[in-house]
Design a protein that fits this description.
It is a single chain. The protein is of the alpha+beta class. It is built from 2 helices and 5 strands, in the order H-E-H-E-E-E-E.
């Protein structure tokens, strides 16, 4: 009886230990790179640039922002004051973002 109880407790602690090791890694990979949006480094933190960014400035700042996170950016298209870009991590697309050149706001789109 005691041996059976000891075996059950060993299984329980093994499963508990495995969960503590595996679960944090799963959630770390699940995070998107810009979950609630961000601001362009050249613009104010409240989301307003002194003057609208040029296309070249916007591309440079978007790539620099994601390079700090070790991610790659490919510009998909420009429409009006917006840039649409795909963000990649190790060759795999992580998310699709849009940059407003007037406000400097970077936000995910799906």
């Amino acid at each position: 009886m005691i041996e059976c109880y000891r075996t059950q407790m060993n299984k329980f602690f093994f499963i508990l230990l495995a969960l503590f090791v595996v679960v944090p890694r799963v959630y770390a990979e699940e995070d998107s790179s810009t979950p609630f949006g961000a601001s362009c480094p050249l613009c104010d933190t409240y989301g307003y640039c002194q003057k609208p960014l040029t296309y070249t400035q916007a591309v440079h700042n978007l790539k620099a922002y994601y390079a700090q996170k070790r991610l790659n950016v490919i510009i998909v298209k420009q429409f009006g004051r917006f840039l649409e870009a795909d963000v990649y991590k190790k060759g795999k697309m992580v998310e699709k973002v849009i940059l407003d050149r007037r406000t400097g706001r970077i936000r995910p789109i799906y």
